[in-house]
Every structure is written in structure tokens, then in C-alpha cells.
Design a protein that fits this description.
The chain has helices at residues 2-21, 24-43, 55-62, 66-71, 77-82, and strands at residues 95-99, 108-116, 120-127, 132-141, 144-152. By secondary structure, it is an alpha+beta fold. β3 (120-127) and β4 form a beta hairpin.
């Protein structure tokens, strides 16, 4: 058990050391690759989340049509108030790192598709090399996709 724990700790330390040696440009490039990979995965037509009402079709309309977005948002009143500034159609798409103010540790913000299952898809949003600021949680309800929760980050 001690050997396994030691190996895990050593791997973690090595990862941090390797990451610390990367330039800002290399770090951003790795996020760009991850975002692009998440988009390719999300768009797969044979993926379970694209069966029935496809998530790809849903999110294309959700991220461009304010009325459709409103009709497919099932947030609590508290969340609608707390996150009103995020409830803008253009916020619901993957984005490679771009400059944005609001974090002392990083000036680059990104959004990428995270957990993807038959009835759940997450859009994780955060600061490069720092923390998630929030996650949009989409769920299939009655065969149709809805934004059901915004999970605050760290």
C-alpha cells in the first residue's frame, strides 16, 4: 500500500514539475488541443448524447436563439438570479483560451465539453492553469435537452 501511495505521490509531483517547466504558450496550446478534442467528441453522430434529440442540434439552437434558450432552461429561481450574467446564448459553446479579466492567477479563460453521457453533458468553464469558474449541466428531460444546473467552481 505504501508503495502504491508513494508511486501516486511521485507521479503527481512529476506532473507538477513538468507543467511548471512549460511556457505559457505551451500550456495554452495544450488547452486548445483539449478543447478541440472535446468538440470532436461532442459532435460524434454515433455518440449516445446525440441519439433521439441530438445534443449537437440542441446546443446549436440553444447558443443562438434566446427564446429557445429560455424555454429550455430549468434553473431554480435562485440560480437564475445568481447566474443571470451567464444566461446569454453565446456563452454556451466550447471556446479555446481567450484573454479575459477577472482572475489574478490567469488571464486566459476557456470552455470545453466535460462529462458526456446519454442523458448528461457538462460544459466546463475556467481559467487556464488555475480553476473552474463554473460548469453548465445539461440533462435530457422527457427526451429533450435542458440546462438544469450551473455548478459554481472552486
Amino acid at each position: 500500500m505504501k508503495k502504491i501511495l508513494s508511486a501516486i505521490v511521485m507521479a503527481f509531483v512529476a506532473t507538477i514539475a513538468c507543467h511548471a517547466q512549460m511556457s505559457q504558450e505551451e500550456i495554452i496550446d495544450s488547452y486548445v488541443a483539449d478543447v478541440n478534442e472535446s468538440v470532436q467528441t461532442m459532435m460524434g453522430t454515433s455518440q449516445p448524447w446525440n441519439q433521439g434529440e441530438s445534443f449537437v442540434s440542441f446546443i446549436a439552437k440553444f447558443s443562438t436563439d434566446a427564446e429557445f434558450m429560455k424555454s429550455r432552461t430549468k434553473l431554480s429561481a435562485e440560480q437564475q438570479t445568481q447566474f443571470a450574467h451567464l444566461l446569454v446564448p453565446s456563452n454556451f459553446e466550447a471556446q479555446t483560451p481567450f484573454e479575459k479579466e477577472g482572475n489574478d492567477d490567469s488571464k486566459f479563460f476557456y470552455q470545453m465539453w466535460g462529462e458526456m453521457q446519454f442523458s448528461t453533458v457538462h460544459l466546463d468553464c475556467g481559467w487556464v492553469d488555475s480553476y473552474y469558474s463554473h460548469t453548465f449541466e445539461f440533462k435530457r428531460v422527457g427526451g429533450k435537452w435542458h440546462l438544469t444546473k450551473i455548478v459554481p467552481g472552486e
